Amino acid sequence: MANFDLMRELALKQGGKILLLVMDGLGGLPREQGGLTELETARTPNMDRLAKEGSLGLSIPIERGVAPGSGPAHMALFGYDPLVYDIGRGVLEAIGIGLEVGAGDVAIRGNFATVDANGLITDRRAGRISTEEGEKRVELLKDIQIPGIEVEVKAGEGYRFALVMRGEGLNADVADTDPQATGVTPLPARAQSPAAERTAELANLWIAEAAKRLKGHEPANMVTLRGFATDPNLPKYSEVYKLNAACVAVYPMYKGVSRLVGMNVQQTGAHDTIADEFNQVASIWNDYDFVFCHVKYTDSRGEDGNFDAKVQVIEEVDRNLPILLGMNPDVVVITGDHSTPATYRAHSWHPVPTLLWAPGTHMTDYAESYGERACIQGALGQFYAKDLMPMALAHAKRLAKHGA
Amino acid sequence: MANFDLMRELALKQGGKILLLVMDGLGGLPREQGGLTELETARTPNMDRLAKEGSLGLSIPIERGVAPGSGPAHMALFGYDPLVYDIGRGVLEAIGIGLEVGAGDVAIRGNFATVDANGLITDRRAGRISTEEGEKRVELLKDIQIPGIEVEVKAGEGYRFALVMRGEGLNADVADTDPQATGVTPLPARAQSPAAERTAELANLWIAEAAKRLKGHEPANMVTLRGFATDPNLPKYSEVYKLNAACVAVYPMYKGVSRLVGMNVQQTGAHDTIADEFNQVASIWNDYDFVFCHVKYTDSRGEDGNFDAKVQVIEEVDRNLPILLGMNPDVVVITGDHSTPATYRAHSWHPVPTLLWAPGTHMTDYAESYGERACIQGALGQFYAKDLMPMALAHAKRLAKHGA
Asked: What is the DSSP letter of A78?
């Protein structure tokens, strides 16, 4: 990929220290025509000061008009063209619920389903059982032994779970067993190329044993497997950017993607506050060139459709920002991975407010505060999210000149 | 092409209804330094209201600095990368004068030329005969019979005409017969690959018969053929975007390109007014997800160099806009295919003012009216025209999320 070739050529081992603060789903829309967005509404004196001093812009996560999932959106923020570096669904699901996926592992999404006495699927989602019910079924499957490999299984939300197969010679080129229909039996795991035949056989052994153990546990008395995928073997931050990088995040998905690009993922608690996260960043700041800090709840409140609560999360970030600024970072990037307007209650395609602050190197624009409309007119313009990392490195004086 | 793969993955069958109103050659320049452009001069209260509520931006038809013809410019507006999806010149010429080009047909541009008694070309454009004289010559050629295929010929402007060959096994890989020089004979049609040999032979039969019939009809006593091309077999709107789309346009070229992408082209009269066109859009609105409406005369008056007349066309569009807004479209896009500044009297490369209005989903910017300078600061930024369709679909909630 041209972008990384250039980074490998230009990235320097020395330079300033970079903080990437991501408020998930940051971008928003006004509640009513002519009104203010969540970010424009929030009282954010610290971010406004950085905005006034630094550069604003809008980032396009994937392509114009395309709303991204969290996986591809973070890949883009990390500098990986999300249409080139595609993390398989099985891997995203697995890392999203906290399973580790290493080199050579095969990760798979699982669904609980209901089958009748003849083995025909009557419900592909097992009556949408609760997460608690799903966890009980997963307990039944945890110690299934398959010869020659290790299998780890973990419950996801509701009827979902994920599976990681670990061992020699595994291959993810296996078709889904979910027939995407009811009234038929699940499909056997079938290799789509000779190299995957053993993996398909092992998956079928696991499915057969799972079916036996789930018998009588209606409505979740069967499993289907989808999205067989392997560690995408991504170029690592240390190799591409020459950065020693760390991740402070609360949700497994963001930890997982960070691990895939070679960040050192910090231990956090599921109930850590924003202040807790920021204090953890501060505590490790001396050990790294680059720290990615992820705040989840802007997205969550946007998905809830709760405009005011999203505003409050943004204000909480701003109130705690002095913890991060107290580290004296050379470059601060504050952005989102995508927009989640509360009016929209979902990820959207709208370009994402981005703030880049790097005293001595940032361009100044006319912005007086951090908000969508200010970003429209900012010095960074509209850019693809995958170009953010080169900009951050440049502002940290970590990129050499290209050509003579 | 990655973009269409993404559209095929994400496009939904359900969603809002989209109106794409194209004022051909909309973009302009001030008459004098510091003045207003045509669009800025025009009194457009309806468009100004939409601009104030919605998002503005500037579209780049092909590449920065590149002035496009109408064919590639519309391909881009329709979402087809014009540097990837190249419609052959013969096809553009043929559809531009109203010939249909179907799958397997070969379309060719023809010129009338003058040859002397020895068959040497003395004028490659037959003394630039009038369209009326050209039409008379075409009458002589209309019923030429070629064994095994059907040939349709139609007069264009002046010394130009177009030809469509229809039948089994045709192939457009045939070199031009126009030697691009005088004092030499026209070249025979020559196949550039074995599969095109029969087509070249059939073309030579047609040329020989045409030469016989034109004998004595100086100055147009010979023909040359150029730009052999076949139906480009473009992905269709229904397949790529899952849109049931219609086209309301007066000029054959725009109808032709619309037909090539699978729009249902409506019957119009050559002398339809803007109000007639808008009323036709309204009359079919219930039957389609997407309607493309093309206004030609902004471009025509720009090409004439008539600034005031171009302003008047824009004002006429605005006056009649309530006909379209009365349909309550979910998404309205008002743009041009390229700029045709009256001061320039030709298509130009200047990025094109674009207005996107979609209550509930559009971003708001600081624009108070629709004009070039307002667009520079708009929420859409500067974007490639090929990205307009994904944005329109997104605003109509017709695109699913990409990735998890």
From this structure: T
Do A371 and A95 touch, CB atoms closer than 8 A?
no
pLDDT for position B404: 79
Q: B258: Cβ–Cβ under 8 A, 6 or more apart, which residues?
A: B74, B78, B245, B247, B249, B265, B292
Q: What is the 3-state secondary structure (H, E, C) of B217-245?
A: CCCCCEEEEEEEEECCCCCCHHHHCCCCE
* DSSP one-letter string for B289-308: SEEEEEE-HHHHHHHHT-HH
For residue A175, count other CB atoms closer than 10 A to its CB.
Answer: 16
**DSSP string of B324-379, one letter each residue:** HHTT--SEEEEE-SSB--TTTTS-B-S-EEEEEE-TTTPPP-S--S-SHHHHHTST
- Report which residue type is found at A141: L
Nearest partner of B382 among A75, A369, A55, A64, judged by Cα? A64
The pTM score is 0.90
Which of left, alpha, beta for A61 (phi over 0: left; psi -120 to 50: alpha)?
alpha
Tracing tokens 């609560």 back to the chain, one arrives at A309
Using DSSP, state whether A50 is helix, strand or coil: helix
Residue of chain A with shortest Cα separation from B395: A65
Give the CA radius of gyration of chain A: 23
Whether chain B has a CB inside 8 Å of the CB on A32: the answer is: no
Two tokens, residue A130:
């609760």
Asked if A121 and A114 count as a contact pair (C-beta separation under 8 A), the reply is: yes
- Angstroms from B94 CA to nearest CA on chain A: 34
d(CA A116, CA A103): 38
Give residues with Cβ within 8 angstroms of A118, minimum separation 6: none
End-to-end CA distance of chain B: 22
Residues A341, A37: Cα–Cα separation, whole Å: 8
User: A93 in contact with B at a CB cutoff of 8 Å?
Assistant: yes
DSSP A299-334: HHHHHHT-HHHHHHHHHHHHHHHHHHHTT--SEEEE
Taking phi first (over 0 means left), then psi (-120 to 50 degrees means alpha), and beta for anything else, what does residue A158 get? Answer: left
Q: Is B7 on the interface with A (CB under 8 A)?
A: no
**Cα–Cα dist B109/B161, whole Å:** 6
Backbone dihedral angles phi then psi of residue B332, each to the nearest 5 degrees = -120, 125
CA distance A185 to A205: 16
Q: By CA distance, what is A27's nearest residue in B?
A: B363
- Inter-residue contact A380 to A356 (CB < 8 Å): yes
* Local confidence pLDDT in tens for the 404 residues of chain A: 457 999 999 999 999 999 999 999 999 999 999 899 999 999 999 999 999 999 999 999 999 999 999 999 999 999 999 999 989 889 988 998 889 999 999 999 999 999 999 999 999 999 999 999 999 999 999 999 999 999 999 999 899 999 999 999 999 999 999 999 999 999 999 999 999 999 999 999 999 999 999 999 999 999 999 999 999 989 999 999 999 999 999 988 899 999 999 999 999 887 899 999 999 999 999 999 999 999 999 999 999 999 999 999 999 999 999 999 999 999 999 999 999 999 999 999 999 999 999 999 999 999 999 999 999 999 999 999 999 999 999 999 999 999 98
Pairing relation of β-strands A18-23 and A331-335? Answer: parallel
> Looking at chain B, which residue has its C-alpha nearest residue A84?
B2
- B332 DSSP β-pair partners: B19, B357
Burial A292-308 (b: 16+ CB within 10 A, else e): bbbbbbbbbbbbeebbe
- B332 near B50, Cβ under 8 Å? yes
Tell me which residue has tokens 């903080």.
A19
> Number of CB pairs < 8 Å for A and B?
95
Q: CB of A129 within 8 A of CB of A219?
A: yes
Q: What span, in angstroms and rounded, lies between the C-alpha atoms of A95 and A231? A: 10
